């Protein structure tokens, strides 16, 4: 009788300590392709909450086969933005259930012309003057030919999976306002480890979804090319 009581107690304790599904991951996976089915590499970046709220959270690289995977701390509402050089970026409002995997297909179409795209002129990593040895300042000079730049001046650290909106050169009234040309900045904590430029990717979009190329190391911008379908 005592053995039966102990077994029942142990079973109950295990059920309480490790509820069913507690270790199930919350994941977004997907494939990015052209209208003709060709896979596209690039970036998949995530906002937490409603679409276009500029609360950037996770991100991941999209590999050469067009596939990506992001594991999240919790389910909920997210804004998924997918970028590939030469293509109009695609925003998607998605809802992820905790402990479940959401699988998506994202189809991108080429930019009809690159004349309307914002431009990344330069990127540099410089030591912070106020937090010497503790922080690095990433500076990115951005220009937009039509003056309709949006808040998506983004830096992604592939080593940590974090996405950041960079700070504009002057204060902007609202997220729907046109953002200024100039040097955008991001302060990176380097108190525990130096910033590795090889891990960083950059992309910029305007309010009409025109985008720069996805800029990777060594962060030397090149004239954007029109993609011929």
Walkthrough of the structure:
- The protein has about 230 residues and is mostly beta strands.
- It is about 5% helix and about 45% strand.
- The protein has one helix at about 1-15, and strands spanning about 25-35, 40-50, 55-60, 65-70, 75-85, 90-95, 100-110, 120-125, 135-145, 150-155, 160-165, 180-190, 200-205.
- The strands form four sheets. It has a four-stranded antiparallel sheet with strand order 3-2-5-6, with no helix packed on it. A three-stranded mixed sheet has the order 4-1-7, with no helix packed on it. Strands 8-9-12 form a three-stranded antiparallel sheet, with no helix packed on it.
- Strand 2 (about 40-50) and strand 3 form a beta hairpin.
- The longest helix is centred in the N-terminal third of the chain and has 16 residues, at about 1-15.
- Mean pLDDT is about 90; it is low at about 1-20.
